């Protein structure tokens, strides 16, 4: 791609910075295209499941958008903090999407849990519930700010069982209802579900 190439969005006068699905976009439009796609896949994942999509094209998107966002994040000299944060968020969300493609089914399930963070200087606890669970983690409602990579303890309110989980991502939904994706560090079947049956029922 030459630096003289223009962004494919009609009316945009900026030069292309990255390409996605064969179209070249400026940084701003690349970011918004990535968000649109990630949001759409997120909806599909929570609804019919990613197996309802053309998984090859999702896989291609994950690869392409991660590579381009990473390249931009490292290479652009005029990147402000907000754009950098957006690009990092895209990389993280795409990697999460990639894991969902490879991994086990999700199940919509409301399981009461307590989240506990022992972050130095900012420890918190929250009684909340899951939105979705998988063999390896969960999507949980959470009003506290959790950083990707941070470790939380998840305690089931019903059984008292505890497990350490890593925050994979956080996506704000409006002002109040923030959701976080967590992945268990070592626990295999925290939810006690028969995943073979869940798989068949999909
Ligand atoms: Zn543009």
- Spell the H/E element sequence: EEHHHEEEEEEEH
Q: Give the C-alpha Rg.
A: 19 Å
* Spatial sequence of strands, sheet with the most strands: 4-5-6-9-8-7
Query: Structural class, please?
Result: alpha+beta
Helical residue percent band: 25-40%
Largest sheet: 6 strands, antiparallel, barrel
Quaternary class: single chain
Please tell me the overall pLDDT: 85
What hetero molecules are in the model?
zinc ion
Percent of sequence in beta strands: 25-35%
Topology:
Blueprint: E1 18-20, E2 23-25, H1 27-46, H2 55-75, H3 81-102, E3 106-108, E4 112-117, E5 124-134, E6 137-141, E7 151-156, E8 162-171, E9 179-184, H4 195-201
Antiparallel strand pairs: 1-2, 3-5, 4-5, 4-7, 5-6, 6-9, 7-8, 8-9
Helix pairs in contact: 1-2, 1-3, 2-3
The structure holds zinc ion.
Zinc ion binds at residues 7, 9, 12, 14, 25-26, 28-29.
List keywords for this structure.
6-stranded antiparallel β-barrel; 202 residues; alpha+beta
Describe this structure in words.
- The structure is a single chain.
- With 202 residues, the chain is of the alpha+beta class.
- Helix content is 35%, strand content 26%.
- It has four helices and nine strands, in the order ββαααβββββββα.
- The chain has helices at residues 27-46, 55-75, 81-102, 195-201; strands spanning 18-20, 23-25, 106-108, 112-117, 124-134, 137-141, 151-156, 162-171, 179-184.
- The strands form two sheets. The protein has a six-stranded antiparallel beta barrel with strand order 4-5-6-9-8-7. The protein has a two-stranded antiparallel ribbon with strand order 1-2.
- A hairpin with a 2-residue loop joins β5 and β6.
- The longest helix has 22 residues, at 81-102.
- The radius of gyration is 19 Å and the shape is globular.
- 28% of the residues are buried.
- The model has no long low-confidence stretch (mean pLDDT 85).
- The site of zinc ion (ZN) has 8 residues, from α1.
């Amino acid at each position: 791609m030459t630096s003289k190439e223009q962004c494919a969005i009609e009316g945009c006068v900026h030069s292309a910075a990255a390409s996605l699905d064969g179209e070249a976009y400026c940084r701003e439009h690349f970011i918004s295209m990535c968000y649109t796609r990630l949001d759409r896949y997120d909806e599909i994942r929570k609804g019919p499941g990613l197996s309802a999509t053309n998984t090859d094209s999702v896989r291609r998107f994950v690869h392409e958008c991660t590579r381009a966002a990473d390249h931009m994040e490292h290479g652009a000299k005029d990147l402000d903090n907000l754009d950098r944060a957006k690009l990092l968020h895209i990389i993280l969300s795409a990697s999460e999407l990639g894991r969902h493609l490879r991994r086990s089914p999700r199940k919509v399930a409301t399981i009461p849990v307590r989240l506990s963070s022992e972050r130095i200087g900012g420890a918190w606890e929250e009684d909340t519930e899951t939105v979705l669970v998988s063999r390896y983690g969960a999507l949980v409602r959470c009003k506290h700010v959790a950083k990707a990579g941070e470790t939380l303890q998840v305690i089931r309110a019903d059984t008292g069982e505890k497990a350490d989980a890593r925050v994979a991502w956080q996506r704000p939904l409006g002002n109040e209802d923030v959701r976080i994706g967590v992945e268990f560090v070592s626990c295999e079947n925290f939810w006690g579900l028969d995943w073979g049956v869940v798989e068949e029922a999909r």
